[in-house]
Amino acid sequence: MSLKDLLSPFFVWQRAFEKPYTTLRPTLDRPGAPAYRGFHINITETCVGCGSCQTICQNNAIDMVAVEAYAGRAGDSGLRPRFDYGRCCWCGLCVDICTAASLRMSNEYAWISDDPDSFHFTAGVDDKPWQDNELGYRRAEGYHLNPPKRIEMPMLSAQESLKSFAEVTLGYNEEQAKKEADRCVECGICVATCPAHMDVPDYIHSIRDGDYEKGLQLMYRTNPFPATCGRICTRRCESVCPVGILGEPVAIRWLKRFIVDQVDKKDYQRILEKPIASTGFKVAIIGAGPGGLSAAYYLRQQGHAVTVYEAQATGGGMLRYGVPSYRLPDAELDKDIDHITSIGVEIKYNSRIGKDVMFESLLENYDAVFMSTGLSVPSSMRINGENHARVLSGLQILADVASDRDPGIGKKVAVIGGGNVAMDAARVSRRLGAEVTILYRRRISDMPADEEEIHECQQEGCTIVPQAIPVEIIDADNKQKVCIKWGEAKMVDDPKGGRARPVLQEDKMHTETYDCIISAIGQSSNLDYLSKELQEQLAFEWGKLTPAEYQHTSMKKVFVGGDFANRTADAISAIEDGHHAARGINRFLNPDFYTALEKQEN
Amino acid sequence: MKDMLQRLQRDFNISDITERQLRLTTFHVKKQSAETLLRELRDREGYTHLNFMTCIDYIEDDIFTLVYMLHNYDKKNTLGIHVNISRDDEAMISIHTLWAQAWTYQRELREMYGIRFPGSPRVDEDFCLEGWDQIPPMRREFDTKKFSEERFGHRAGRQSEQPRKHMKVELYPNRGGDEK
After folding, report:
1. Distance between CA atoms of A591 and A497, rounded to whole angstroms?
2. Do A192 and B164 touch (CB under 8 A)?
3. What is the arithmetic mean of pLDDT over A596-600?
4. So what's the architecture of A40-122 in CATH?
5. Is residue B53 part of a domain?
């Protein structure tokens, strides 16, 4: 070894006093570029836990996990994305697909830890220094990986639709349906909100696959009225669709209709499940509306003998007599009802309980009874003179038209109310050639009617006068006419934060003469078929009641459902009531079977 | 600009001329005219700089679209030249003779999309994917998720829930279509 070899290490030391060529962290901070795709940020308050980020992630780097601060509720699964940085490649697809635009990336890119397990975190929940970073990758304004606009429903023009009672919506064609189905992210958040908990993502998927028979089978698992609901459902599902946060919600109702439209009625028997072998039990159902027939369908599937008692000459209840055929053609309603009867449900028409058959005899002769007689009595306006012969009820007009009777409304009518019955009474009157004015006590935005109905109503030439409170009905000079006195209302905010209240302005009164006044301000139930004692025993209050779990009442054999037993009073809720009562009745009739099943599960 | 595009339309049959933004215009040209057109733009029109080359996989139409981005320093504008090539015959004339640095882009495109550039220097050597044994990863038929599933291990203790199932358990356990 030479002397040089021995000394050379010491020569290196002289460099220790020179200016270094490299820079030391953290002496100089180097922030990421403004749009850098760095560590994830999630605004957990905006996130709805749809899991689209997880689905799109090509590296399986995202899990959806339950987070303590968020419980599942309508429109929010309560789950939040958790990132595994051992797998993430920072492509940003999760940010691009995020339905709520809650997921972002910060421009932070340095994270040093000895513990590999720490690189696994729930953004926005686990405390991270970059959560509030202003910079980093954000989706560009107006950029949508998923098309924000829904495929428009082809419709008759307003002029064309006024000429007849032909269906106004024409239905998607296959190309339109597939395009619309492609907008669904298949998160299933809507399933919780649908009263019947329909398998929405699965049946939409069946459209993507072009397998409409499968779609129909999926729908019948939870709803024996798909042709009907595909047209007139209140579609609570769409109100929580995450795609609707940044764009328009997926047209779930129109897609449901599309599936039903693709399948011929004569193929239903072959495609759909058949009832199991007879159990020997007999169930009576009062009312052949959506609630009663839904219960009938699911009870029959379970092998019970089902008899439905219906006071009217045809089935469908409000769907038949309360929904005009331009929204729901009779043939479509019949498609649903015919399948229910085709599996062996017996409907006794023109059989009014309390008159033709006594309620007590049902209790005696059947193993269980399901009541779903709905709300059939128009509510009173509680103003002077409302018993005038030219004051008609909206329900009566709709029932007349549904039964091909002339309701005799005349040429100039006023409709009182802001619900769907009011809108339909108005649109029916337009079709019968009348000039229509709708008086509603609150603002148009407060109307309980479906937004589309209000819009179509206006399109068809009905005049809506909001903030108009009826005060009195007065005789006109002519017996064929009637006058209404109404006053303008001022909206007064509720100091407690409730909805604004209309207050009559005594100095702003109007009086107008019409050929008739159509009152459509709500309905109540008709319980004449039950004795006072029975009504009390069943705990009816103001004609309504709240059932226990599985739609059970305080009477052992009696189950209830539909408009008089729920708060939402729409078809889909009645359908679920019927389905749920069928589950309850099934448990009630086979108690041992279910106890065994529960034991097995535990 | 307008004159030049009109002339290119006449001489090279360019199509789909689109002004994408201020100072950025794109158009399509047929594969067989592309090299001559690029040479013309470089030598006669002042587009001396090749910003970059890239590719888009339009698998639905069975084509790759190659994009050549050229810049003119005098006019301070950029042209995007789009060239469609069939996915069945994914070869393109090499332009390393026009811009020497093109060989790097072509090597990358070879690796990521499997596009052949005969004669381009070192074009078949690994670029950034050392030891890659799958189909080119930027091709749309490459299943990234399946690959990452097969290739990489799972961190212990990871678990995930489906929003729909989670909500059913939490909110409506006895309802919906599952119970028989």
Report:
1. 47
2. yes
3. 70
4. 2-Layer Sandwich (3.30)
5. yes
Q: Which long-range contacts (CB under 8 A, 24 or more apart) does B144-150 make?
A: B144/A58, B144/A59, B145/A57, B145/A58, B145/A59, B145/A60, B148/A58, B148/A59, B148/A60, B148/A87, B149/A60
How many domains does chain B fold into?
1
On the question of pLDDT at A161 being above 80, the answer is yes
The CATH class of the A158-271 domain is mainly alpha
- pLDDT per residue as tens digits for the range A66-115: 999 999 999 999 999 999 998 999 999 999 999 999 999 999 999 999 99
Cβ contacts of B47 within 8 Å, gap of 6 or more? B41, B70, B71, B72, B79
A392-427 pLDDT, tens digit per residue, is 999 999 999 999 999 999 999 999 999 999 999 999
Residue B69, SS3? Answer: strand
Q: CA–CA separation, B38 vs B95, rounded Å?
A: 9
Nearest by CB to A63, which of B152, B160, B163?
Answer: B160
Closest CA to A452 of A589, A326, A269: A326
Token representation of residue A225: 């009225």
- Strand pairing category for A282-286 and A368-371: parallel
**Residue A595's pLDDT band (cuts 50, 70, 90):** confident
Same fold flag, A282-376+525-601 and A378-523? yes
CA atoms within 13 A on the CB side of A556: 5
* Out of A50, A79, A197, closest to residue B176 by CB: A197
Half-sphere exposure of A260 (CA within 13 A, CB side): 25
State whether CATH 3.50.50.60 applies to domain A282-376+525-601: yes
The rounded distance, in Å, linking the Cα atoms of A569 and A374 is: 8
Chain A residues touching residue B167 (CB < 8 angstroms):
72, 77-78, 188-189, 191-192
Contact A49, A58 (CB under 8 A): no
Q: Please state the length of chain B.
A: 180
Q: Is residue B61 part of a domain?
A: yes
Q: Strands A377-378 and A523-524, how do they pair?
A: antiparallel
Q: Residue count of chain A, please give it.
A: 602
Give the Cα-Cα-Cα angle A246, A223, A194 (nearest 5 degrees).
30
**Interval B34-81: pLDDT, tens:** 999 999 999 999 999 999 999 999 999 999 999 999 999 999 999 999
* Reported pTM: 0.86
Q: Is residue B92 part of a domain?
A: yes
Decide if B142 touches A, using CB distance below 8 A: no
Give CA–CA dist B19/B17, Å, rounded: 7
* CATH number of the domain encompassing residue B56: 3.30.460.80
Q: Which residue of A has its CA nearest to B148?
A: A59
Domain-located, residue B180: no
Q: Per CATH, which fold does A378-523 belong to?
A: FAD/NAD(P)-binding domain (3.50.50)
Q: B145 in contact with A at a CB cutoff of 8 Å?
A: yes
Q: Map out the domains of chain A as residue ranges.
A: 40-122, 158-271, 282-376+525-601, 378-523
Strands A412-416 and A435-439: parallel
Contacts of B150 in chain A (CB under 8 A): none
Domain that holds residue B71: 2-171
